[in-house]
Amino acid sequence: MRRLIAGQGLVIAEQTPSMISLKVAPVEAPNDTASAATQDIIVLGQGQSRQVQSVSPRAMKKLTPGASPLRALGRLPGVNFDSSDARGTYEAATQLSIRGFLTDQMGYTLDGVPLGNMQYRNNNGLSINRALLTENNGTATLAQGSGALGTASTSNIGGTVDFTSIDPATRFGCRSRRKLRQR
Questions:
Q1: Are 72 and 83 in contact (CB under 8 A)?
Q2: Is 2 part of any domain?
């Protein structure tokens, strides 16, 4: 038995012919306190604590005019977007799946404001297709993995999708594609 528990942090507390009781081995304090204080901490990675990908406004412009920004997210690795219509705007028949997490398990925000659950016929959500005209879509950022405390959502178990809108024009009128490319 001693060979089985060697190196596991356990010791035999009590032993009878029919029973062996184990307990946690006492931790020995290091003799040299200076060596314990000078241990190095190694950090691998920087910036984000999870995988973050963005779809730029330029990439959104490659979609069919009027298409849902969710369709653009479908081009990212690990993301699957299914819809019954070509543009992805029919809410009753759209499904976003990100590494096995479905639409109602994701957190959605628009310019930092929570959209709630975007599942069809839900009483606490607003679809991005209703919240923002497709011509005003800015960058869409997808953070895969477990939910983040920095995202205002109650359903971000599978990650978050943050939509941004483009800045409003300083003058009344329409924007040409040339002006958008210059930005």
A1: no
A2: no
